[in-house]
Amino acid sequence: MFLIRKTTQKLKLASDASYIYERGTDEGRALDSLSRCVEFILASGGGSIACNIIDSRKQSDYKPRTLKVNSNKIDNILGINLSDTEKVCILKNLDLRPTISGNNMILNIPSYRKDLNIDEDIAEELARFYGYNNFPKTLPTGQSNTAKVPYIYDRDFELKLKNIFINLGFYEQNTQALTSESTLKKSLLNVDNHLRIKNPVSSENEFFRTSLIPNLLSAVKLNNAVNDLKLFEYNKVYFPPVNDAKEKYCLSAIIRNGSYRAIKGVLDTLLARLNIDKVIIKHTLVEKGLWSPQKSGVIEKGNHDIGTIGEINPLVIDNYQLDNDLLALELNVENLKILSKPQLFKVIPQYPAQVEDITLIIPENIKVGSVIQSIKETSEHIIKIELKDIYQRSYTFRIYYQDLKKTLTDNEVQSLRKEFLSILKKEFSITQS
């Protein structure tokens, strides 16, 4: 019966036969069916009955089954307490002929009700005829389990990172963990620092990768006709078992025909979405090889190494036979997750902000991020700074001044402006245009 019902639902082909046989045929109605059949034959074809009915089954096979159910258990299943009178009335109408025996009810189950076998079946019949709309409206009680299930990989943070990059116009790729010796050498990576399989299937799948950048470079090579290509990959990298080294998740991205400012903007957007601030980029600690020693840096916050950002080594680009500048970043997902903080929402200020644009002439060796940080630290009333335009060494910033308790006057804004201009001139030799 179960297979018939399952097949009917899967194929969505309901019929009279499926309706009957998924519930089971009624053996107790065999004699009634035979009598009705004989009646039709006599009425339409004539003739007479030659003998009495011969039945090989026992008379007890026709009798209804007996089922004992517990009234208290049924009330627990329903969630409401029905009186014995209500229960008996409903069950009588269902031809179950109930009798009360203490806390139990004795029911006579007809042969055509093969679906009634346990207390829950009887509770369902009572609920159906009592009326689902008559049940009181209550909210679920108890507490839900908020703890993470052990040994289950939580994809929430992964999906958050992927959505950020997809929203920034990147396309995702997913590659296998094994690579070849030739790929490592083209990428100027040390082969000895990679785990090697003792019995590789082929030379193309011999080493475990320690970086996702070579896979991205191969993808750029395959999509050589696309000029403004933006790719990223979220996957595992593997390290030899030295100290605490192990497999870890890594997020890498690459931009073709971009600029350092573009890849830095991607990093800034990611850090802002994760609510990570006060991150520094050290341009003197990048090892030679895959990355350009002069135009790349290590991303750090405190004692946490977040990753690397910058240009790909020109020698690597030549080895892959590419003729475009490639900028990339590679991030340690574990440290990103540790440093990320939940987004906090603030009450909308009652008083409006004063907004002004100011153009500064910044020397070549000064980082714009240091300038912005220095302006913000001047006063708590400087709530936001945006870089709006760049022309040669002239940088135009949009500065927002705001006080939560009142509207700032022009004189107060002027005083704040003079204060941070004085600091910038003293610390960075920056002047106003």
SSE order, as H and E? HHHEHHEEHHEEHEHEEHEEEHEHEHEEHE
> Tally of extended strands?
16
Number of domains: 4
Q: Radius of gyration, Cα only, in angstroms? A: 39 Å
Taken from the alpha-carbon principal axes, the silhouette is: elongated
- CATH topology (level 3) name of the largest domain: BirA Bifunctional Protein, domain 2
For this structure, what is the CATH homologous superfamily of the largest domain? Bira Bifunctional Protein, Domain 2
What oligomeric state is this? single chain
End-to-end CA span: 86 Å
Reconstruct the topology from this structure.
Blueprint: H1 2-11, H2 16-21, H3 30-45, E1 65-70, H4 71-78, H5 84-93, E2 99-101, E3 104-109, H6 119-130, H7 156-167, E4 171-172, E5 178-179, H8 181-186, E6 207-208, H9 213-222, E7 230-237, E8 248-256, H10 260-273, E9 280-282, E10 291-301, E11 304-312, H11 314-319, E12 326-332, H12 333-339, E13 354-361, H13 368-376, E14 382-391, E15 394-401, H14 410-428, E16 431-432
Parallel strand pairs: 4-7
Antiparallel strand pairs: 1-3, 2-3, 5-6, 7-8, 8-12, 9-10, 10-11, 11-12, 13-15, 13-16, 14-15
Helix pairs in contact: 4-6
